[in-house]
Design a protein that fits this description.
By secondary structure, the chain is mostly helical. It has a domain of about 200 residues. It is built from 12 helices and no strands.
Length: about 280
């Protein structure tokens, strides 16, 4: 489930970057994406398990906190794509596992040598894969940095405060809260809407159904079995997928050094998968 979620989430950056550079408003696109995903979740739960739509006051408070953070984070990320390209974004976002592990360590989770080895492979691989990309917009850098921090906080809070609840209920109300936050940001920018066109709507639908509706549920289920730290250590694989998709959608080219970096990224992800399998065998 973690690998499936990783692959689905990897579609977002190149698709969103292509749409933004094509003139689609980032927040309008994001609001449409989340709105469609919420409608799909509402229909799915309403028709199959309507009892999962019930929520108590304690869960509502926790979801409001995490969903509010997630809403601000995703706004920052989509806005950053108007300032920096997908390869730079992928390189910067590759530090997320380190941030998550450091936050988990503050909460008492132990950092092992294997964690650090995986991170070393990942950092080396990401540097070779993407490399220095010239001038980086300070606005884009600030938005991406805030996105990295808020996403790490969101993932840690998910593990600490929400893993005891049904993932479908949590995912639904998190998406609903995120949609409300994005709608607020969109309204603050003037609530202007322009038709994204066929290409824009195609990107929105893929991001809504695959990268949001499916990926969110898969990620939460994976966290219940292997924890936030293990899920975070699969992000280098997501970065590799983003680069490969950028070659297809944005016509970027990879050098020999970049392919070598991609191999290191796969080694890092492979170590995470092997560790998860070992934990399952020992249970």
């Amino acid at each position: 489930m973690a690998l499936a979620s990783t692959g689905a989430a990897a579609l977002v950056t190149p698709l969103a970057r292509a749409a933004v550079t094509g003139g689609v408003d980032p927040l309008g696109m994001l609001l449409a994406r989340l709105g469609i995903a919420v409608l799909l979740m509402t229909a799915t739960l309403g028709l199959t398990r309507p009892e999962l739509l019930r929520i108590d006051r304690e869960l509502a408070g926790r979801v409001a906190l995490v969903g509010g953070i997630a809403g601000v984070e995703i706004c920052c990320f989509f806005l950053s794509l108007a300032w920096i390209d997908s390869s730079v974004s992928a390189m910067l976002k590759s530090v997320q596992p380190l941030v998550v592990l450091l936050l988990l360590a503050l909460g008492g989770e132990r950092l092992t040598r294997r964690h650090l080895l995986r991170l070393a492979f990942a950092v080396a691989g990401i540097y070779l894969l993407v490399g220095p990309s010239g001038q980086v917009s300070s606005v884009g850098l600030a938005l991406t940095g805030l996105s990295i921090l808020l996403y790490a906080v969101q993932l840690v809070l998910l593990q600490w405060r929400l893993l005891g609840y049904d993932p479908r209920t949590v995912t639904y109300y998190l998406l609903l809260m995120m949609t409300l936050v994005v709608a607020l940001f969109w309204a603050m920018q003037g609530a202007q809407w322009s038709n994204p066109g066929v290409a824009g709507w195609s990107a929105i639908l893929v991001m809504a159904v695959v990268s949001t509706y499916f990926a969110r549920v898969a990620q939460f289920v994976a966290m219940r079995h292997i924890g936030g730290g293990q899920v975070a250590l699969l992000w280098p694989l997501q970065t590799l997928l983003i680069i490969l998709l950028s070659v297809l959608f944005l016509h970027e080219r990879l050098t020999l050094f970049q392919w070598g970096g991609g191999l290191l990224v796969l080694v890092s992800a492979g170590l995470a998968v092997n560790r998860s399998r070992e934990k399952a065998e020992h249970r």
